[in-house]
Amino acid sequence: MTQKQSIDWKNEWFPIDDATYLNFAAHAAIPRVALNAVQRSVAAKMQPHIVDDRSFFSVAASLRQTLATLIGASPDEIALTTGAGAGLAAIAYALKWSAGDEVIIARGEFPVHYATWKPMEAREGIKVQIAVPQGPFIQSDDLVAAMTPRTRVISVSHVRFDDGSMLDVPSLAAACNRNGTFLVLDVSQSCGAIPMNVHSLGADFIVCAGYKYLLSPWGTGFLWARPESSDSLRPGPYNWVSQGVESFARLNYVDPEPAPTLSRWDSSEAASIYNFNLTVMEASAKFVLDASPALIRDHNQALINYFFERLPEGYRLASPRQALQRGVFGCIEVGSRGDTESLYQTLRDERFVVALREGKIRVAPHLLNSTQDIDRLLVVMAKARKEARHVAH
Description:
Layout: E1 20-21, H1 32-37, H2 39-46, H3 53-71, E2 78-81, H4 84-94, E3 102-106, H5 111-117, H6 119-124, E4 127-131, H7 140-146, E5 151-157, H8 169-179, E6 182-186, H9 198-201, E7 205-209, E8 221-225, H10 227-230, H11 276-291, H12 293-309, E9 315-317, E10 330-334, H13 337-349, E11 352-353, E12 355-357, E13 360-363, H14 371-392
Parallel strand pairs: 1-11, 3-4, 3-5, 5-6, 6-7
Antiparallel strand pairs: 2-8, 7-8, 9-10, 10-13, 12-13
């Protein structure tokens, strides 16, 4: 057993005594070290005179380096945003469009993709196309089959929010490259919980929300762009603080030029020690990196495998059974959609915090959780099924 495996990870979080929390794919419970770190920002706002220029910029620089290490990138290729939506919006506005260009998203994709691209039809004269899966889960082949010579962008999730299925990104990226199509990949449901390398994935742009597997607050995230792809973006409003210097005395206040790095696309006024969210994210991302996405993946997938293998009679999987084909959470159904919604309410009444997404119950553990949590969940599910059968008779 390694040193990391021997850690009692549950103690790394503040206790959740009144519930069993299995909802990290919706909103992460933030670890102790990150919630304690916010005191740096509290102190900075209480006594601003203690903040010198180095301190002002240090949190953002540290976070950029941690995120770069997590995804195998350079810190210069990362912009700090307020979420996946902010990254998608930046790409949508900065790309050069021609009337008739197509953007492909998958049927039932997380709504941020539709909300980003659909308004661009009226704005730029483009067309949003919906790729339909040929099987139970969206596959790279489904998206490739939907491409045409007019396809400018494919915008898709690495791991689906509603069923946990994981996309074969490298094969999709290769097809996009051959077609001259940009691949925009949303890694909100995978970054921090699944090892990844942007060069192996092959996407042109990556967007991510921080409040899931980066264990960060709502209102955090990042955007990564391949240097060749970012060079094709149109000029746009930029973060005035990002000028390639880290000294207010050296900032150009007359005709400032943006930094050559992707920091110019930082959400305005976000990259500072005064930003409570950023201070927490910086500590959370380090926590994830120190624990390692590989360990987090192995732990979470082991719990979901354990859960799937012991499902009571009458339940069915709504996620791929094979761990290699899904992320680190799992979804199940029972009976009709109404039956599943009734079960969800029963679980909530029994103080199990899970999610109901598209008629499926999503169970999303983390290092906070153990097989004991899954065992308790299974007991309640078996009891609920037995009571449902009794009522039916």
